[in-house]
Amino acid sequence: MNKPVPPELDSIRLDKWLWAARFFKTRALAAEAINGGKVHVNKQRAKPGKDIKVGVQLSISKDRYRWDITVTSLCTQRRAAKDAALLYEESPESHAQRQLQIIQQREQREFLAYNGIDHKPNKKERRLIHRFKEEQ
After folding, report:
1. How many domains is the chain built from?
2. Which end of the chain is more exposed for a tag (fewer CB within 10 A), N or C?
3. 115 is in which domain, residue-wise?
4. Mean pLDDT across the stretch 14-27?
5. What pTM was computed for the model?
């Protein structure tokens, strides 16, 4: 049974919009982030059930990244990532800051990369380890 989707939405719940815009995998995770103070509406804390409209400013913090966005469209259904990106417009400063963070983390991972063996020994390697221990 498909629900009829209203052609023009006036407002939508914040947690549902965050889920539809693909910031969170589930509405429960979106609600948890909102309750934890990770999402601000017009620079104020909000509740998951807060109705948002087009033009609202959102600040979203997730996994050490931060998005400062403006809601440009409302949707009740989760769509492809390309379509979800059309639901909001990110500020240029926010985008530049996030890209800088990504580059810094990538460089840090390469710098701190461990080149030694960091895997579980396979059967052959375990036999060699056992032989070595028995000889001593």
Report:
1. 1
2. N
3. 12-135
4. 96
5. 0.75
